[in-house]
């Protein structure tokens, strides 16, 4: 087991154990939004399927309109073509057809002039200038050609991609399935949210912040009942959690206290391995990473901010990787900001303070802290929209200096 390691090393160990993304499942088109595609998608036909008009106007033969160069030209209108109703006729020389946006071009039409550029008479139009060949025409396949790969496996499905899937006629899509994530709070002092905490007790907020983070990261959370600080109870809950999930998150029970049993319980389980304990960060130091039956079991520290900050640094990237995201997209977005207050030296651990980042009138990104920074101040996460990162051993920062932030709004 490694102990008291750097954030990067910890992340490398956790992500390094993911050998492949989760298996695929077939979902309804719209349900594929945000998921990662498992197969290349090939266009079954051209999009658009046929040459059509880009405007409401008149279809004609461009050469016929040349005569409008010297004087006004009258052209009889011989048909009316709404969208969705192809006209089977053929354009006679010197005539025009009235045609709406998206309507298929009849044979003979090789240019469209928009209606506001002509004089519209009863059954004719007056052209005052020639129309260029191909004007205001959309060609079959100009968006997508039949047989073309429109989306490659591994793509994250955006709203535009959902539209494209519909355009190529895909009612169902194969995507990486969502990770199932067990969420398990431990602690004798923890009571359910609907209870009134007795002396020395506190309501369980971690199960809900964790489950909400899991949902937001695209997973399916399963909240377990609060687990007492009792090795036998923890053991039973862990085994059940591992059996039914792809990933297990616990909160609490990983510090140095007499009742912090998680690590020893995991060690005593068959098919288990404790990979590291403690990370050089604040908050979040006591993090425990282990594997049971080859599934990741991550012991998040119990203090509500530590739980959430550790999730952001380790669990969100892990869930993204399991869900098929590329390595380049796993981490929180970083940016540099001018800090508006003095920051104390972080000591020998990397500090992730909670901040509110905002662009000032000049467009410069600024950040200030959310106030009290204790690891129990959940309010700092409620108010914050970013983490303010300070490297270990640094001297802190003075107001006006540049610091690195990681965005918490997604
Ligand atoms: P632990 O990591 O078990 O030592 O817990 C540290 C502190 O975090 C506890 O004293 C509680 O105040 C708080 N805590 C632990 N678990 C929870 C929880 N599920 N919900 C809210 N606070 C918690
Ligand atoms: Mg505890």
Can you lay out the helices and strands and say which pair or pack?
Elements: E1 2-5, H1 7-16, E2 24-28, E3 41-42, E4 52-53, E5 57-60, E6 73-81, E7 96-99, E8 111-114, E9 119-120, E10 124-127, E11 137-138, E12 149-151, H2 159-167, E13 172-176, E14 180-185, E15 190-191, E16 202-203, H3 206-216, E17 220-223, H4 231-244, E18 247-251, H5 262-268, E19 272-279, E20 281-282, E21 288-292, E22 295-300, H6 304-322, E23 334-339, E24 350-359, E25 365-369, H7 378-383, E26 386-390, E27 402-407
Parallel strand pairs: 1-19, 6-7, 14-17, 14-18, 15-16, 18-22, 20-24, 23-25
Antiparallel strand pairs: 2-13, 3-12, 4-11, 5-7, 5-8, 6-10, 9-10, 19-21, 21-22, 23-27, 24-25, 24-26, 26-27
Bound molecules: adenosine monophosphate and magnesium ion.
Residues 186-187, 252-253, 302 line the site of magnesium ion (MG).
List keywords for this structure.
410 residues; alpha/beta; 4 domains; Molybdopterin biosynthesis moeA protein, domain 3; Molybdenum Cofactor Biosythetic Enzyme, Chain A; binds magnesium ion; Molybdopterin biosynthesis moea protein, domain 2
Tell me about this structure.
This protein has 4 domains: 2-23 and 177-329, 3-Layer(aba) Sandwich (Molybdenum Cofactor Biosythetic Enzyme, Chain A), CATH 3.40.980.10; 26-45 and 152-176, Alpha-Beta Complex (Molybdopterin biosynthesis moea protein, domain 2); 52-138, Molybdopterin biosynthesis moea protein, domain 3 (Molybdopterin biosynthesis moeA protein, domain 3, Beta Complex); 334-407, Beta Barrel (Beta-clip), CATH 2.40.340.10. Helices cover 19% and strands 30% of the residues. The protein contains 7 helices and 27 strands. The strands form 7 sheets. Strands 1-19-21-22-18-14-17 form a 7-stranded mixed beta sheet, sandwiched between helices. A 6-stranded mixed beta sheet has the order 8-5-7-6-10-9, with no helix packed on it. A 5-stranded mixed β-barrel has the order 23-25-24-26-27. A hairpin with a 2-residue loop joins strand 21 (288-292) and strand 22 (295-300). Helix 3 packs parallel to helix 6. The protein starts with a strand and ends with a strand. The structure holds adenosine monophosphate and magnesium ion. The site of magnesium ion has 5 residues, from loops.
